[in-house]
Design goal:
Elements lengths: L1 H22 L13 H5 L8 E4 L5 E5 L9 E7 L5 E6 L3 E5 L3 E6 L16 E7 L8 E7 L11 E8 L13 H27 L11 H5 L1 H13 L13 H9 L11
Parallel strand pairs: 7-9
Antiparallel strand pairs: 1-2, 2-3, 3-4, 5-6, 6-7, 8-9
GO molecular function: protein domain specific binding
Subcellular location: Endomembrane system
Keywords: Disulfide bond, Glycoprotein, Membrane, Signal, Transmembrane, Transmembrane helix, Transport
Length: 267
């Protein structure tokens, strides 16, 4: 019984540690993971903190999309000229959803409003839109929605926008390089040349065998033409020409050679 009790305590502590590790770090995840949002948001886990200011230049905001430390605040709001920082959203209340080219991360559970929005907790929505060529992105404030109407159920929120390739489900379109285009054109021209030339040699000129290859004689002598061109371009020394007169040794051998008996026979 003592061993079972020790095992139970160990398992309980281990599971508690795992639970704390999962909830104290990482990116917001969806339980059912529709549209593969979990893997897409994980692409942002190594990103630094994003910052921006509103249109009035009175408030500044900072967002760390994925939790990397013990700070539970995901979205922070600061007023210019003041050291006060407001909690505008926490990781604990974060939710995520998405489509084919967008992700929406909502951080709730922020600091409560003091005089409006029925003193509800602050909430921040981060809309990540697809930008296939952007690996960092730029954060900007889209809207700060709040109201003093105590009879409305319309929630107050901060809406931010970030462009990043993590929101994309399809990568950037692949383009063909200029070299590939030239190679394709070359292969097409060669194919048309061979096919049309073969048909002409076969049915018009009546050629047979290798003669059906267009310009067969030229291609057969192509190697010799290359050698002549290389000899003309690459060799600097003057080519030695054979003399027009016979060497002395050849002349002497001609004089000492026996006469041709055929010339002495009667015709």
């Amino acid at each position: 019984m003592a061993d079972l009790g020790s095992i139970y305590i160990f398992v309980t502590i281990f599971c508690s540690c795992v639970f704390v590790m999962v909830n104290c770090g990482g990116c917001p995840h969806h339980a059912n993971d529709p549209n593969n949002v979990n893997d897409r948001i994980d692409m942002l886990k190594d990103q630094r903190q994003y910052s921006c200011v509103d249109d009035s230049n009175k408030y500044s905001y900072s967002i760390l999309i994925c939790q990397t430390g013990k700070d539970p605040t995901a979205v922070k709001q600061a007023k210019k000229g003041s050291k006060r920082i407001y909690n505008a959203g926490t990781y604990e209340s974060a939710t995520i959803r998405g489509g084919t080219d967008w992700l929406m991360v909502s951080y709730g559970g922020g600091e409560k409003y003091q005089s409006h929005c029925q003193k509800a907790p602050r909430k921040s929505d981060l809309l990540i839109i697809c930008d296939p060529n952007e690996s960092r992105g730029t954060l900007k404030v889209i809207e700060e929605h709040r109201t003093n109407d105590t009879h409305t159920t319309d929630p107050c929120y901060y809406l931010f926008e970030l462009n990043h390739k993590a929101a994309c489900t399809v990568g950037p379109p692949k383009t063909i390089s200029p070299g590939s285009i030239l190679l394709i054109i070359f292969l097409i021209v060669v194919s048309v040349y061979l096919v049309l030339g073969f048909l002409y040699q076969r049915f018009v000129a009546g050629a047979k065998g290798f003669e059906q290859i267009p310009n067969f004689n030229m291609w057969r002598a192509f190697g010799n033409l290359q050698a002549d061109g290389c000899n003309f371009i690459c060799r600097c020394a003057e080519v030695r020409r054979s003399p027009r007169y016979k060497p002395v040794e050849d002349a002497l051998s001609d004089d000492t050679a026996p006469p041709d008996d055929d010339s002495l026979l009667p015709m």
